[in-house]
Amino acid sequence: MRYVAPLIFLTTHDGASVFFKRVFLCFSVVALLTISAKVQVPFYPVPMTLQVMSLMIIGCFLSRTSAFASLSTYVLLGAFGLPLFATGGGIAYLLGPTGGYIFGFFPCLWIFSSITTRSSAAVSALLLLCGVVTIYACGLLWLGVSIGWNKPLLSLGLFPFIGGDLAKAFVVWGLLRADRKTRVRSKTRAW
Predict the structure, then answer these.
(1) Do the Cβ atoms of 134 and 107 come closer than 8 Å?
(2) Neighbours of 188 (CB within 10 A)
(3) Could you tell me which residues come within 8 angstroms of residue 184 by beta carbon, excluding any fewer than 6 positions away?
(4) Is the pLDDT confidence value at 173 over 80?
């Protein structure tokens, strides 16, 4: 019985409620990133996944703190060996050919989270493109270190993916525009 009172306090106290909501949000984002990593078209050495689109959505619609906490949790759990990444997990996976792309998620998330509902359509599009370029820059640099600079890095790590990622950026850009219009309409109705 003495253990029940602290549990009741945790579930009724506002601070604990906020804490549990944040933990739930964090693990929901980890689940989204994991599922989007598993939805893939196998390429060698880098598979084509939906993670870039998931990162765009996470960065654009969550706070920067929540987005980074969730991404850090995802990478740490994957580094500890949980098979959260496209084809596995562990430190060896992060040091493999796709590790640069995963570590490129952090600076690109910073760029994506700079997009606000007040950002113009052109600024939103530019920031989405800059985020994608950042992922590719980090990924291609590490790919060169990992498999050798004498390999056709652009053919292995850029050309098969750029069209799909630009289409994903366009979809997220459309979602941002629709969200902005919805927010403007709801503010207009409130007046």
Answers:
(1) yes
(2) 8
(3) none
(4) yes
Per the prediction, the chain carries an average pLDDT of 85
Other CB atoms closer than 10 Å to residue 100's CB: what's the count? 24
Helices H / strands E in the chain, number of each? 9, 2
Residue with the two structure tokens 């689109």 = 53
Measured CA to CA, the distance from residue 127 to residue 142 in angstroms comes to: 23
Least confident stretch, 41-50, 73-82, 165-174: 41-50
The CATH number of 4-180 is 1.10.1760.20
Give me 61's structure tokens.
Answer: 């619609």
CA 22 to CA 3: how far, in whole Å? 24
Neighbours of 103 (CB within 10 A): 16
Q: Are strands 48-49 and 40-41 parallel, antiparallel or unpaired?
A: antiparallel
Helix, strand, coil percentages for the chain (3-state, nearest 5): 75, 5, 20
